[in-house]
Amino acid sequence: MRVYLREVSKSDSKNIAVWRNDSAISNHLLDNGEISEESSAIFYERNVITGKYIQYIVEKVEEEYGVFSYPVGTIYLKNFNTLEKTCEIGLFPSNDNEWNDQAKEMAIKALIEKVFREMDYDKIYTQVFGDCQDEWQLLKNVGFTIDAISKKIHEKRERKLYRLVLTR
Asked: Is the model's pLDDT at 26 over the cut of 60?
């Protein structure tokens, strides 16, 4: 399996809205309100175009019947601190079966490479709910460790929220 990261475009708004609104996915997100294709396009204009976010679509490369690729998820960076050389990484999956642990790990590693080598940052952090064991294990596998633990009311219940960090 191979994946690559391509910069998100406004035309990805439809897929992002579909992925984001899937209840199995939104339960893992800090902000789990529904979005529309239009609100996703507005987000793109206000945040990606302005550089507040750097967002990529994860494309799975299919080589069994010729070479082509298709989108399976999205991954992004935000909260840039150029003075301390830190940023936050986030991802949310699609409901595509190809967006499995292997594809997620490959995408995260590719983005970590960009942050540390191309951007010359020193630290990446992220947040994950304590009961999201798949994400927890995935981030641990690529080297993230616990930095802090807090509690958050999410979906009308209290959940532990872990801040994880990875340093160069």
From this structure: no
**What are 86's strand-pairing partners?**
81, 123
**Burial category of 94 from C-beta neighbours within 10 Å (exposed 0-12, middle 13-18, buried 19 and up):** buried
Q: What is the dihedral of CA 44, 48, 49, 54, to 10 degrees?
A: -150
Q: Report the alpha-carbon distance of residue 98 to residue 72 in Å, rounded.
A: 7
Query: What pTM was computed for the model?
Result: 0.85
- Per DSSP, the three-state class of 72 is strand
pLDDT, tens digit (0-9, with 9 covering 90-100), for 116-164: 999 999 999 998 888 778 888 899 999 999 998 888 765 667 878 889 9
Spatial separation of the C-alpha atoms in residues 53 and 43, rounded to whole Å: 10
Per the model's pLDDT, the better-predicted residue between 10 and 129 turns out to be 10
* Residue 132 token pair: 């999201």
Specify burial of residue 157 (Cβ count, 10 A radius: 0-12, 13-18, 19+): exposed
Residues 33, 93: Cα–Cα separation, whole Å = 16
